[in-house]
Amino acid sequence: MSIVKVIEVLASSDKSFDDAAQNAVTEASKTIKNIKSVYIKEMNANVTNNQIVSYAVNAKVSFEIES
Questions:
Q1: This prediction's pTM
Q2: Can you say whether the dihedral through the CA atoms of 5, 24, 40, 8 is positive or negative?
Q3: Which alpha helices (H) appear in 1-67, and where do they start and end?
Q4: Using an 8 Å Cβ cutoff, are 61 and 11 in contact?
Q5: For 66, which DSSP code?
Q6: Nearest Cα to Cα of residue 13 among 50, 44, 48, 41
Q7: CB of 24 closer than 8 Å to CB of 57
Q8: Pairing mode, if any, of strands 3-13 and 51-65?
Q9: Which region, left, alpha or beta, applies to residue 49 given φ > 0 means left and ψ of -120 to 50 means alpha?
Q10: Which domain of life is it from (predicted)?
Q11: What are phi and psi of 19, to 5 degrees?
């Protein structure tokens, strides 16, 4: 039986929501191993002068715990 743990990560990008999600996984992978999935719980965009200047995601990252 495998055990999966879930952490919540906030990440951003000045390029896209996809890039922000990848940043969440990349940063999480620096301290955890065996990442299995990422669930995007929320997405936000910051706007200045009628232009989107950054994208942010609230992501749940799931990873398997080694036993």
A1: 0.89
A2: positive
A3: 17-28
A4: no
A5: P
A6: 44
A7: yes
A8: antiparallel
A9: left
A10: Bacteria
A11: -65, -40
Q: Domain locations in the chain?
A: 3-65
Q: What tokens appear for 30 in the block? A: 């620096």
pLDDT of residue 1: 79
Determine the topology of domain 3-65 in CATH: Dodecin subunit-like (3.30.1660)
* CB proximity list for 42: less than 8 A, separation 6 or greater: 57, 58
For residue 14, report the phi and psi dihedrals to the nearest 5 degrees.
Answer: -95, 5
- What does the block give as tokens for 49? 């002068």
β-pairing, 35-48 vs 3-13, is unpaired
Amino acid 10 reads: L
Mean pLDDT per segment of 10 residues, for the chain of length 67 residues?
94 98 98 96 98 98 91
